3-hydroxyisobutyrate dehydrogenase
Amino acid sequence: MRVGFIGLGNMGRPMAKNILQKGFPLIVYDIVPTAMSHLIDQGAQGASSPKELAGRVDIVITMLPDAKAVSSVLEGEEGVFAGARKGLLIVDMSTVAPSDTQRLAQEAMARGLRYLDAPVSGGVAGAEAGKLTIMVGGKEEDYKQCLPLFQCMGERIYHVGDIGSGNAVKLVNNLLLGINMIGVAEALTLGVKAGLKPEVLLEVIKNSSGQSYAFTSKVPSFILSGHFKPGFSINLQHKDIELALQTAKECNIPLLLGSVAYQVYTLARGKGWGQEDISAVIKLWEEVAGLEVRYAELRKDG
Ligand code: NAD
């Protein structure tokens, strides 16, 4: 099975590396040529365009920032559709709106190609460790063919339904993450302003009913250390809530907390923190409270 991988950023690079290390012949492409060099040094071959790559492989995986990038990689003049042979399986692992996935999948199928959406959760650390959670939408037989590749990148792999379902699950997850993160930021700042030690709050709440992934993972690694390098960036979280709001509009469902969360991440982007981890939203409350929620024993240079 010859595999192509397009989009070698924070997530794509370690995911592609794990596929290569499990012995699959791999051809890679990124719009930034230097992004390919690390994988080429490790034995992958480089392609000159998505079109050229598509003509040399059985499966193309894409891991791109957003639907605009996925569209340009698939539909562009030098794109995958232009170079694909009939039966090629496209696996988009980027986070995009379910409706974008459905549109692109329909176009692929009209050309005799196959399509899965397979977004992931677990962040850069999960990608590096090969321990991502992968949620897959599409046909059962295509899912089964791809399973050995998913197992190179992830630990928990779920076939959740038809095309677009993977991204629907992902958006629900990331809506919750984005809202939970803001809850953690304001509650923690209140606790410290009221005179509590952040390390005490960490210890008690991680063992109490207020805990969440945003709390147990982000408080020690980012907030208490003051180290806000992603991680999962505010820009990507902002995009994901935007996709949830777009999907909610299509479904005629109100997203009250989602709308507020969207504005908070917009504010944080306006502050120039778009490239920082989502936990950096706590700085909005810290500014108002006139304090920093840090713990000297975990503190990094920040
Ligand atoms: P990134 O910005 O680090 O990487 C994207 C890569 O795609 C870059 O190398 C870029 O050069 C390349 N690219 C952009 N446009 C291209 C084009 N037209 N042709 C070819 N290459 C192109 O982003 P990331 O953090 O790796 O995230 C990728 C996807 O995974 C996003 O959809 C994101 O929402 C999702 N995701 C990210 C995380 C995370 O923690 N970073 C976690 C889960 C899911």
About this structure: The chain has a mean pLDDT of 96. The longest strand covers residues 154-161.
